[in-house]
Amino acid sequence: MSAELDLAGRVVDLVRRLAGSGAQAEVLVDHTALALTRFANSGIHQNVADATSAVRLRVHLDGRTVGGSTTVVDEAGLTALVERTIAAVPLTPVDPGWPGLAPAAPLVTDGAWDEATAQATPDERAARVRAFVDAAEGLETAGYCRTVYWSGAFANSAGQAVAGRAAEAAMDGIARVPGSDGVARLGSRRLADLDGAVLGGRAALKARAGADAIELPPGRYEVVLEPTAVADLLTNFALYGFNGKLHNERQSFAEIGAAQFDPAVTLVDDVTATAGVGIPFDGEGTPKRPVTFVDAGITTGVAYDRRSAAEAGTVSTGHGWPGGGAFGPVPANLRLLPDESAPTAAVAGPAADGHTAALLSTMERGLLVTDFWYTRVLDPKTLVVTGLTRNGVWLVEDGEITRPVRNFRFTQSYPLALGPGAVLGVGGNAITPADSWDLFGFTGPSLRLASWNFTGGASG
Amino acid sequence: MTHFDAAAAAVQAALDAGARYADARVMHRRTESMSARNGELEELSQDEDAGVGVRALVGSGWGFYAVPDMSDPAARAAGTRAAKIAAASASVPVPATGLIPLPAATGSWSSPCEVDPLSVPLSDKAELMVGLTTTMREHGADLAESHYRIWDTAKWFVSSEGHRIDQRFRECGGGITATSIGDGESQRRSYGNQYGTRGWEMVTGLDLPGNAARVAIESRELLTAAPCPAGQTSLILGSEQMALQIHESVGHAIELDRILGWEAAYAGTSWLDLSKLGSMRYGSSLMNIAIDPTIPGALGSFGFDDEGTPASARYAVHEGLWVGVLAGRDSASVAGLDYAGSVRSDGWARLPMVRMTNVGLEPGPHTLEEIIASTDDGIFMDTNRSWSIDDRRLNFQFGCEIGWEIKNGKIGRMLRNPTYTGIGPTFWQSMDMLSSEVTAWGIPNCGKGQPGQTGHTGHPAAPARFTGVRVGVTG
């Protein structure tokens, strides 16, 4: 038994001892060791690490529900957590929507563990930064290299008791020339997969290729979105589109059974097939398993935690966030399936990979977009999003990258951009770009889309 | 062992391990949050966290380490670890890092608090929150939500230069949101969403019950309101939206770490050029933006920042000229400035970094009533719904919850989905009327840094008018 599972079990027992056997209790124990080496102006300027243990408790008693957490995990701290949680119960209104505790169920996956990543040293992260900086050959660089080690456990008074451990590594950096930034970004379950020299070289190539950009008029353009930009689409689909709580409230675009996407689009949440911290159960103890939300263009489902599932008359899909009931369930490992038969082409210039180059090669006139920035939802129901391009845009004419282009602002409905007939090509190489919050593993290939609505240039 | 002892032990261990400077923050934070939805309590959470974070400077490299354990051995181990991490930074060095001088200080500070928010009975708070949603539902909202949040934070700071400071922050606030859902879109109206370094009087002073019916009715009316027209017009912003405008297009732009490129890969840089500090026109002569962490009760207030610099006020923009930045001791040293005082951390487990404190407008000569009366053709917008701005803090597009047409000096019909877009300095230079009716708004969710940190910032703001603004951008 892991130390975290032992701790979770002790807290469940303490609740029963102090509140009686009628109390329903669930306990989540997280131990996270996060280390992040950050560089700017081509030097390491921030270098941080922390090791934190936290216990989150939820108690349902006499029809009422109260939650709480602490990082003070000695006996006194845990007792205080349990006592104040129980004491709060009679002071709160009844909770008629309480969905009950997760039943006992075995894990479907066992997390993602790489000992070398978990035990990575500051020197190993610094070495990758050194390689990134050197590969940029004198360009100004900035970014980070991160390793995360997580071990945790969940126990409840209904008999569910699961534990797991996982590791994650990520590197995200830019290289800069005046007026142009280039980016390279990659997440993995293994630090060994992150080659600072490869990433730094790619970022520098993009930066140089973006120099002396021209400003094009706003309007609708055909686009190829690289995986770094596709991740933003997946983020917004996960947060707003496939959020079961928003769907219950009729604030999601998702219509189960409807052909809302192009047949080339299949979206699956799968913790085993993406990077990001691979926690094998959700915040309510429900084991994670692959869940398909869009199958060949047909919307087939949304994500549920236990409460939103009960409201919808179904079961949890394993997407509950600890303490995240007010926002609702989020599929944190959403993956756009690549086209396994997609062609590749020789990479010339700033294209991310051969699949991206192949998507460009048949484009008559359009834009190659590396990255999106500061995207915000104007209306969750239609998922109209505004944001900007970042880190490299190029004009493509007759299958060739011809000119770098200055950044655009866009205002675009994301589901409509991937609607029936709108997807002109899906790349064959799905990657997980590094996620700044070490929470998500959004993963996808490059995409060629018929139209993207650019509403202004970055200069106005 | 006191909390000061734990911090001092961490600092000493870092020095023993080779640091030439070190500081440590022991923090203990209790938080409470409650949300209600459609007549029922949705979530109540009472949380606690405590630990020590140590910052060490070895050569020109920084290291930081944090643990949730304030025992002497744990604190010492954290200090040693911070110095070791700092040493690793030397393999990819930055130019020699200095710290501008700061006299050693000892002191205590507490935020004003009339009613301890954690002592208010949970039953009273729950009755308030649930009742608000019931009222909104009764007045037409499809989705009625309310919430409050409370933070009670104690900090003990020790540095190797002799600082020994303790502070206690009690912060709280809350708000309500009514959403009405139509066939093709949803409309939202909210009220409150206001926070400060104050006690529960902050929430009671908002009069949430007195506004619940109004926001529900407005959210329903928005579904059938005319869409915001597209074009260029005079734009009047309410003070709540002005707070967001200041935060995004001034506050972040004047962060010295961004100007120096320290945030280039993520949050971004700034369009501001240090060589033009003191001479560049940021906005019209009506624009006076102060950096002032001394405002009683504002969310960005403190006695000392997280480097031990005492709170003091200075201008960022004076009569339209850019004259000041938000700085820390190291960034000020790099920039050749002689002031700091704007460094804060999101808890004991995060590295202190340059942050907004209270960044806001000084009062103007007009009133909102006068601004509307003197506008022949324009749009009045308020309450932010969406916000997006580029990585240099120049190009922004903001959406508001509600707008009204202004014709011949009078408020006309309601407008739905109002948006406006612009370029920071052009926009601020077009400000031709500014109200004296200042409210110190608080924003409790400012994201910055890697690992991510959430900051609490304050923004005194008043209604203002801008000319020739592009509005009505749609997808």
UniProtKB/TrEMBL annotation, chain A:
<dbReference type="Pfam" id="PF19289">
    <property type="entry name" value="PmbA_TldD_3rd"/>
</dbReference>
<feature type="domain" description="Metalloprotease TldD/E C-terminal">
    <location>
        <begin position="218"/>
        <end position="454"/>
    </location>
</feature>
<dbReference type="GO" id="GO:0008237">
    <property type="term" value="F:metallopeptidase activity"/>
</dbReference>
<dbReference type="InterPro" id="IPR036059">
    <property type="entry name" value="TldD/PmbA_sf"/>
</dbReference>
<protein>
    <submittedName>
        <fullName>Predicted Zn-dependent protease or its inactivated homolog</fullName>
    </submittedName>
</protein>
<keyword id="KW-0645">Protease</keyword>
<dbReference type="InterPro" id="IPR045569">
    <property type="entry name" value="Metalloprtase-TldD/E_C"/>
</dbReference>
<dbReference type="InterPro" id="IPR035068">
    <property type="entry name" value="TldD/PmbA_N"/>
</dbReference>
<dbReference type="GO" id="GO:0006508">
    <property type="term" value="P:proteolysis"/>
</dbReference>
<keyword id="KW-0378">Hydrolase</keyword>
From TrEMBL, chain B:
<comment type="similarity">
    <text>Belongs to the peptidase U62 family.</text>
</comment>
<dbReference type="GO" id="GO:0005829">
    <property type="term" value="C:cytosol"/>
</dbReference>
<dbReference type="GO" id="GO:0008237">
    <property type="term" value="F:metallopeptidase activity"/>
</dbReference>
<dbReference type="Pfam" id="PF01523">
    <property type="entry name" value="PmbA_TldD_1st"/>
</dbReference>
<dbReference type="InterPro" id="IPR002510">
    <property type="entry name" value="Metalloprtase-TldD/E_N"/>
</dbReference>
<dbReference type="InterPro" id="IPR035068">
    <property type="entry name" value="TldD/PmbA_N"/>
</dbReference>
<feature type="domain" description="Metalloprotease TldD/E N-terminal">
    <location>
        <begin position="22"/>
        <end position="86"/>
    </location>
</feature>
<dbReference type="InterPro" id="IPR051463">
    <property type="entry name" value="Peptidase_U62_metallo"/>
</dbReference>
<protein>
    <submittedName>
        <fullName>TldD protein</fullName>
    </submittedName>
</protein>
<dbReference type="Pfam" id="PF19289">
    <property type="entry name" value="PmbA_TldD_3rd"/>
</dbReference>
<keyword id="KW-0378">Hydrolase</keyword>
<feature type="domain" description="Metalloprotease TldD/E C-terminal">
    <location>
        <begin position="231"/>
        <end position="454"/>
    </location>
</feature>
<dbReference type="InterPro" id="IPR036059">
    <property type="entry name" value="TldD/PmbA_sf"/>
</dbReference>
<keyword id="KW-0645">Protease</keyword>
<dbReference type="InterPro" id="IPR045569">
    <property type="entry name" value="Metalloprtase-TldD/E_C"/>
</dbReference>
<keyword id="KW-0482">Metalloprotease</keyword>
<dbReference type="GO" id="GO:0006508">
    <property type="term" value="P:proteolysis"/>
</dbReference>
